[in-house]
Write a structure and sequence with these properties.
154 residues, alpha+beta, 4 helices, 25% strand, globular
């Protein structure tokens, strides 16, 4: 009887933890017009895999070795001609940067070119080739003081 009770408690705990992780995935699309908008995605989320941006150079502020420092990522998907073929993705740790949200929200699918994006953000920090084109990644250094650990705690 004790073993079955322990197994039931353990399985409920596992289900609760799995549910909690999916609960925090607030990935979504922000529509700003017929061909403008952007995705807000969490690293490793189902949406990041669907969009094909799960190989981004993202780093988590919750990593104990980074002491609250991390990198958000902007991802832009272009076809072979150099035109934006999908809404940009903002791969975020926590709070989104308003400056970058406004910039990526102004880009128009099928009209914005690689050169337009380079004028706004410079050269990409990483590039990933795809069958239908290429994905440019731009990193944004971020700091979350709530994730800072170590040092002189009392």
């Amino acid at each position: 009887m004790r073993l079955s009770s322990l197994a039931a408690v353990l399985s409920l705990t596992v289900v609760g933890v799995c549910g909690a992780n999916s609960w925090h995935d607030d990935s979504h699309y922000v529509s700003l017009g017929p061909r403008t908008g952007y995705y807000v995605v969490r690293d490793g989320s189902r949406l990041s895999r669907q969009l094909g941006v799960d190989d981004s150079p993202y780093s988590d502020t919750a990593d104990p070795l980074r002491h609250g420092y991390g990198k958000d990522v902007l991802a832009f998907r272009f076809n072979h001609v150099g035109k934006l073929i999908a809404a940009p993705a903002y791969i975020a740790n926590a709070q989104l940067n308003e400056f970058y949200k406004r910039r990526i929200g102004s880009l128009i699918r099928q009209r914005t070119s690689v050169q337009d994006v380079k004028q706004l953000f410079g050269n990409p920090q990483a590039v990933s080739k795809r069958r239908d084109g290429v994905v440019y990644y731009y990193t944004i250094d971020v700091f979350n003081p709530f994730e800072q650990s170590g040092g002189d705690r009392r």
